[in-house]
Specification:
- By secondary structure, the protein is mainly α.
- Helix content is about 80%, strand content about 0%.
- Helix 1 runs antiparallel to helix 2, helix 1 packs across helix 3 and helix 3 packs antiparallel against helix 4.
- The two termini are about 15 Å apart.
């Protein structure tokens, strides 16, 4: 159950990171509210997941999921450029996250 909570929390990290960018310095209400709610939920989930997982592994997986989903979303939405180097780096992050899961 800790892994499921951790994955959901990682996805919520991508939500709050994206909303933060779209809030334009907290000047837009809706993205600012989404940021706050997703941030609290993501951190709470991370804290709960850490009860059953090693802190280093949990944090690295949480960041890896959040970073990967954030970059992929930005590339798909056209906010960031797509290149083979970027795609290979994303694959490396996913490989590291999977490796941490398999090693724990």
């Amino acid at each position: 159950m800790s892994w499921i909570i951790l994955v959901v929390s990682g996805l919520l990290e991508a939500v709050w990171a994206t909303a933060l960018g779209k809030s334009e310095g907290f000047s837009r209400l809706y993205p600012s509210v989404v940021f706050g709610v997703a941030l609290v939920a993501s951190m709470a989930g991370l804290a709960i997941a850490m009860r059953g997982l090693p802190i280093g592994t949990a944090y690295a997986v949480w960041v890896g999921i959040g970073a990967t989903v954030t970059v992929v979303y930005a590339m798909v939405s056209g906010d960031e450029a797509v290149s083979m180097v970027r795609i290979m780096c994303i694959i490396a992050i996913v490989g590291g996250v999977v490796g941490l899961k398999l090693a724990s």
